[in-house]
Amino acid sequence: xxxxxxxxxxxxxxxxxxxxxxxxxxxxxPGAKVVxxxxxxxxxxxxxxxxxxxxxxxxxxRACALRLAADPAAYTVFPTYDMPRQHRVMSLVAEHTDLPxxxxxxxxxxxxxxGAPFFVMARAEGRVPPDVMPYxxxxxxxxxxxxxxxxxxxxxxxxxLARLHDQFxxxxxxxxxxxxxxxxxxxxxxxxxxxxxxxxxxxxxxxxLERSFDRLEELWPADEGEPVLxxxxxxxxxVIYDGFRPAAVLDWEMAAYAPREVDLGWTVYLHRFFQDxxxxxxxxxxxxxxxxxxxxxxxxxxxxxxxxxxxxxTLYAALRHGIVMLRIAYRQAYFGEVEVPADPDGLIxxxxxxxxxxxxxxx
Length: 363
Description:
With 363 residues, the chain is of the alpha+beta class. Helix content is 40%, strand content 13%. The protein has 9 helices and 9 strands. The strands form 3 sheets. The protein has a 5-stranded antiparallel beta sheet with strand order 1-2-3-5-4, with helices on both faces. A two-stranded antiparallel sheet has the order 6-9. It has a two-stranded antiparallel ribbon with strand order 7-8. The longest helix is centred in the C-terminal third of the chain and has 25 residues, at 310-334.
């Protein structure tokens, strides 16, 4: 399910991280012990996660998760990792909404203790729909669930998005607005253009991604809609579930101040990404789960806001995901895991569906 054997996700040693974390924690809670350290199998290629327990009578919680900015020497997926920003977003979401956001504890902005800034939060227990192999493949708990159970999960997860957009005071999210000129949507897209330019600096450019940017301009909404706080990486793989109900909403590093449809388009497309891959490998996947028409209809019922210009927003989601895929592929090439082909568009796993969106034939 990748362009090569699964890309490496870290150049760090968990044992060494655990030792350095214990030394840091002793300065916060003298005499505290760090035990049961582990790295989750789904650890990503952007920020990294370390799980551990604290043994101390005054510990605010026992079970913790640490979110650590990517190693700047490891060909990072994104150009910057703003841990104070993530910490602030999670604190504000907990303050202003009823979403189950993990309690954030300590923020460390000094890179010296662990090699990069990090924050510590309470750890939630439960299960997460897998990315590798994706939950659309046979052999995992979500695929094995009943239709009614998946419907329950879909409803509860879409409710998270609706409640976030409705409950969070939009003005409190204005600090997320990128520098530049124009509307929040224009600045969001301009920031993605800048990210693309960073990805291809000194490397082969992607004709498909550049056509996608051109097509966005042709589809640009006449009415962009009011901006709200966007979760950013709004997908079920970033939720811990207790049964089929959300227990914790994770991964806020892509949080943004943008129209509602930016989040909804990401939710729709990231499922289609996995579904299309699964069908391409000869399995039916989950064709009745997280369907675009169902999500749009139900979101309108929950919020009173009818999603609009979704061809633009699903294309934008696929384009954004394509830039990330290209960076990951170039990262693999950097570590000698793949060779860059003559046509760099072949490095984008969903290049066929993205091309179909550009041509107006996908949906």
